[in-house]
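FAQ: What does the model actually see?

It sees only this:
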Amino acid sequence: MKPVLLVLAAGMGSRYGGLKQMDGLGPSGETIIDYSIYDAVQAGFGKVVYIVRDYFLEDMRTLVAKKYANVKCNDGSPLEFVFVTQELNKIPAGFTLNPERQKPWGTAHAVLMAKDVIKEPFAVINGDDYYGKESFKVLADWCRAHEHSTGQYCIVGFELDRTLSESGGVSRGICHYGSDRILTKIEEHLNIAKEADGKVYGDNSVSGDTHITIDGKALCSMNMWGFTPDYFAKSEVIFNDFLKTNINELKKEYYIPYAIDCMIKDGSATTEVLSTPSSWFGVTYKEDRPAVVAKFAELVSEGVYPSPLY
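And it is asked to produce this:
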């Protein structure tokens, strides 16, 4: 069984100031998604599902067809690509979209768009985050081990101080779990940054406490998940309930952590917290770009990646 990689690539980077998913950051113009797919294929993934928007669907199709034409899976078969679009009007029957709404419905809604094209255990990642080779290996191993499971999911947690930006504060969901490594909640923190004293500070959006010390070794969510296909049916039920309350809200979004929290509370699923030795990096702000370009150049010079990748 070859797991599926689901890439969330529908969002525009408002803070970054452009479409990050298509920005060439590697020495030969590689995008962050290119590196993620390279690592995923090496880890044993066999299909990539892109979640995109209608307005750049054809650009992505053309780009992918050209760039990955000769990419093979570990068993020698061609790497498969599927495209699915996320749009505001893709909501369940019985609900009427508020014509004033412009904001997307969120990451959990985006994942639901792939319910008809994924039948295997699958991973979810952001298109503009670099997760590292080890992270994909950890996730691929989990997917293969849960081929026949239901109601058992996972999240790959990154050490907080490996996910910070030097260009400004970031928002991160801190994972809480017990000795069994089963997730109990994800607590959102805002404005997280390492300050001159070497400590990490942030604001707890749940309690309202501001400028509190946060353990830099705490595992946080970077939106790297592992699911079995039964996730779709569970998430769809929760989305329906979400819309009953929020259909006329203009900014409320249906996020993956919200869906998982609902499943934790009703006991319909458990989520294992996996850890990775990899360091995350990405382009949260446009000022991050030079450092990311330098990092990819360093990884190539160290022999971690070839250049060009494909």
